[in-house]
Write a structure and sequence with these properties.
236 residues; mainly alpha; Four Helix Bundle (Hemerythrin (Met), subunit A); globular
């Protein structure tokens, strides 16, 4: 099916990226609240992943602040109040990103309970600011974006973000984004990637991502896209 490039922007990617953040913040909380403290390898892996996620969140907000929000503000002056709220949310979230990053860096080398508790406290504060913002962005801001810009403008923005990212960063980010996705959402992500990098990132790096995830979350956490999982066999 050919999609009209001048039709409304398809903003489903925003929810997919938000869900990846929600998913791994929840996984982090689960690891850090088990009765037995994580061993050294898991502690380091979780801390490193938190630091990386905060870098990603900072980049994500910067991409909105520097391009998407100014574009919407220019094309749709009536969205000004909502855009002001998005800006205020980002300003409120920013120090919580810094706080969690600092706590994770300390925890990476310090197994003491106090360091772990500091990460949990910072995680609580981040989620209190971040999670309502993500929901508001999806429920209120994305419909405005979809009405204001075209599919081509949205896709061009996404392609520019991918094109300008270092390949090593994309190699880490793509398996993280598609973790657990169903077929429809998987296709939304993969259509942004050029053919050759798409194959490498979706297949060649999948095993590396699974190994890293076992270290972080444990062997019982399924991280492959749901579309790629073998179907359960039913007894005859």
């Amino acid at each position: 099916m050919t999609l009209d490039p001048n039709g409304p922007a398809d903003t489903r990617m925003m929810g997919i990226l938000h869900d990846a953040l929600r998913r791994d913040l929840t996984r982090t909380r689960r690891v850090l609240t088990t009765p037995r403290p994580p061993d050294e390898s898991r502690r380091v892996a979780v801390a490193d992943h938190l630091i990386w996620m905060m870098e990603y969140l900072r980049f994500h907000h910067g991409a909105e602040d520097e391009f998407l929000w100014p574009l919407i503000r220019r094309l749709n002056p009536g969205a000004g109040a909502l855009l002001d709220r998005m800006d205020a949310d980002h300003a409120r979230i920013s120090p919580e990103i810094d706080r969690l990053t600092t706590a994770a860096r300390i925890y990476r080398t310090d197994p003491a309970p106090a360091a772990q508790h500091a990460v949990m406290s910072a995680l609580d504060a981040l989620e209190a600011a971040l999670l309502p913002h993500l929901r508001r962005e999806e429920d209120e801001m994305m419909p405005v974006v979809s009405r204001t810009i075209t599919r081509r403008q949205w896709d061009d923005w996404g392609h520019d973000l991918v094109k300008n990212k270092p390949k090593l960063e994309l190699a880490r980010e793509v398996p993280w984004v598609i973790d657990g996705l169903d077929g429809e959402r998987y296709d939304v992500v993969t259509q942004v990637l050029p053919a050759v990098p798409r194959f490498i990132m979706l297949h060649a790096l999948a095993r590396q991502y699974r190994r890293a995830s076992v270290t972080r979350w444990g062997p019982g956490v399924e991280v492959t896209p749901r579309r790629s999982r073998p179907r359960a066999r039913h007894p005859a």
